[in-house]
Amino acid sequence: MMKAMVGISCCTKQFGIFGMPNHAASDTYVRAVDQVVGAVPVLMPANGDAADIETLLARLDGLVLTGSRSNVQPALYGGPPHPEGTPEDHSRDGVTLPLIRAAIARGVPLLAICRGFQELNVALGGTLHQRLQDLDDRFDHSTPMHPNPRVRTGKAHSVRVVPGSWLHRIAAAREIAVNSLHNQGIDRLAPGLIAEGFAPDGTIEAVRVLNAPGFAVGMQWHPEYDFGHDAVSRRIFEAFGDAVAERLNPAVRALAAD
User: Fold this and answer.
1) Phi-psi region of 105 (alpha: psi -120 to 50; beta: other; left: phi over 0)
2) Domain ranges of the chain
3) What is the pLDDT of residues 7-49, one digit of tens each?
4) Most buried one in 74, 82, 221, 239, CB count within 10 A?
5) Strand residue runs (E) in 164-203
6) Which of 10, 11, 114, 246 is flagged as catalytic?
């Protein structure tokens, strides 16, 4: 039986002694798609205007939008310029934002994580806080700079789950514990998105696209780090995998193409 193919968004990063530009995505996403979703991971380059969105969506059965050190460029949501030295990735923005809008319209399953979660909000007309730790009413959500990876990616705070939401059905709980590795966060929620989980300081941590023809959810934390031992993280990828498998069905594909 032919497997589904799931696209994973890449960032542009410099590697090697000469700083050559590369397209990269963390191995954690590849393993989650391979081991839990049961699909073939396909890395989508951050090639800006050269990206062929229609061809990607015609060939792929689902999309995972990854986290990144880079921030969504403020010009895309009418925000002030970033402080000097803040990493941006305009080539990635040039792919992911139109890809999000087209994927939702076509019913291609979409799982948006961390930066991908922020991209989802911006793509649909929302805005971002650039540094939550600079706001008086928010705590520091950024990555713990600790050499032990279990500390860096371990549980950092709770999320209050909205009763009756998609996340509530997945978590089977009113509160879950999550990791926290981000500076940006949602300011104004985009029209068409509904919040499904909140940090103790009120930061939106999970969303779902209302009235989407297919699976379209996002979370600010990183379920790909601990799907091997965290039940909620694994169920997130399993639910995405179910939607991908349904998308692979030729009858579903034909209906979406009409």
Assistant:
1) alpha
2) 5-257
3) 999 999 888 887 888 999 999 999 999 999 999 999 999 999 9
4) 221
5) 175-178, 185-186, 193-198
6) 114
Phi, psi of 17 (to 5 degrees): -70, -20
Active site residue 114: yes
pLDDT at 257 > cutoff 60: no
Token readout for 72 is 């969504």
Q: Which CATH architecture has domain 5-257?
A: 3-Layer(aba) Sandwich (3.40)
> Could you tell me if 187 and 74 are in contact, meaning their C-beta atoms sit under 8 angstroms apart?
no
pLDDT digits (tens, 9 = 90+) for 136-177: 999 988 887 777 777 688 899 999 999 999 999 999 999 999
pTM, to two decimals:
0.94
In angstroms, the CA 107 to CA 243 distance is 10
Quote the CA–CA distance of 227 and 70 in Å, as a whole number. 24
Q: Helix, strand, or coil here: 78?
A: coil
Active-site annotation holds for 224: yes
Among the listed residues 119, 196, 205, 224, the single catalytic one is 224
Q: Tokens representing 19? A: 């700083």
Three-class SS state of 35: helix
Query: From the candidates 129, 141, 182, 222, which is the catalytic residue?
Result: 222
| Residue 2 clears pLDDT 90, i.e. is over it | no
- Helices 90-106 & 115-123, crossing angle to 10 degrees? 70
In a 3-state reduction of DSSP, which class is residue 33? helix
Mode of pairing for the β-strands spanning 175-178 and 157-161: antiparallel
Share of the chain above pLDDT 70, in %: 96
